[in-house]
Task: inverse folding
């Protein structure tokens, strides 16, 4: 069983509508295992790897590679922490999510959201 806890600082503003915000909040929550050092990790990701915090969902593969470069085998602990957070925030079984993997889940979720938005625009006559 996975216990889900979110503090108000990392809780997504809109849990039901903004998938990207939920992903960002889950990543932020996963990185919270570092406590006060978390801002330094975001700083290092941006300066050394060119990955801004808000770009992580679009650069999820690069993000994981950067974590591996920074933390080595410890990056797996961080990835598991992020997966636990995603599991809670999206109400998905952790084992199933672990089998899917972080990169595939984030990529697929973003693609589904994009298709849904495009389909909605087309049905309303938007271009």
Result:
């Amino acid at each position: 069983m996975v216990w889900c806890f979110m503090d108000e600082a990392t809780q997504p503003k809109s849990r039901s509508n903004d998938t990207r915000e939920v992903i960002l909040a889950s990543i932020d929550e996963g990185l919270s295992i570092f406590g006060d050092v978390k801002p330094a990790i975001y700083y290092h990701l941006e300066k050394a790897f060119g990955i801004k915090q808000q770009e992580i969902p679009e650069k999820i593969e690069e993000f994981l590679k950067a974590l591996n470069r920074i933390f080595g085998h410890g990056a797996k602990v961080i990835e598991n922490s992020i997966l636990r957070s995603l599991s809670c925030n999206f109400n998905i079984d952790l084992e199933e999510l672990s089998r899917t993997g972080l990169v595939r889940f984030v990529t697929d979720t973003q693609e589904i959201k994009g298709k849904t938005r495009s389909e909605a625009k087309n049905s309303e006559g938007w271009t």
